[in-house]
Amino acid sequence: MTHFEHHTIETAPEAAKPILQAALKGYGFVPNLYATMAEAPTILEGYMSLSDIFGKADLSETERQIILMTNNRLNGCKYCMAAHTTLSQMAGVKGDIIEALRKNTPIADAKLEALRQFAIAINESRGWPSKAQLDAFMAAGYSRQTVLEVILGTALKILSNYTNHVADTALDDAFKANAWDIAPPVAAE
């Protein structure tokens, strides 16, 4: 298997160093995902920029995490599932919602469950949800804007989930308490 370097601020390409320094300042450590992405500063910059943009979506933190964690689960990303569990806990997302996302069980709140189901539909259909799925999502109280924001969150997770898959990114100590042990899907041959 190809080895991907786990960069430090010192070993990273010049274009990645300021991003890693900002992560160190913000988190108190450089997450292994970022240290891996630093190999290609453009993906690191793209991921960070898209993450910032997704944070501006007209969604609550809980709604954003529902989209992100649903994609993490569907894509079988153990790293991101553990990391977003930790981030969700820190942001005050309710424990029962986090557990539902980790275990793929319904969320008690009907509107939030509709969001989870639509995030599943976008991921599994590769962006081709049925009219019935779109109508159900809108009937739950979401808008065309939210449809597009679900796509944005899905795109964000492709960057991180796929990077973690190919690089076999090690879980940071900060996320180990929330390790997720469900096996990822098997790739097609």
Helix-strand pattern, N to C?
HHHHHHHHH
DSSP helical segment count: 9
Query: Helicity level, as a percent range?
Result: 55-70%
Beta-strand residue percentage: under 5%
Question: Outline, from the CA principal axes?
Answer: globular
Total beta-strand segments: 0
What is the distance, rounded to the nearest whole angstrom, between the alpha carbons of the first and last residues? 16 Å
| Uncertain segments | none
The major beta sheet can be summarized as: none
Radius of gyration, in Å, reads 17 Å
What structural category do the secondary elements indicate? mainly alpha
| Average pLDDT figure | 94
Topology:
Elements (H helix, E strand, L loop, with lengths): L16 H11 L4 H6 L3 H14 L6 H14 L3 H14 L3 H9 L6 H15 L6 H9 L4 H24 L22
How would you describe what is shown here?
This protein is 61% helix and 0% strand. It contains nine helices and no strands. It has helices at 17-27, 32-37, 41-54, 61-74, 78-91, 95-103, 110-124, 131-139, 144-167. The two termini are 16 Å apart.
Task: Write a compact overview of the structure shown.
61% of the residues lie in helices and 0% in strands. It has 189 residues and is mainly α.
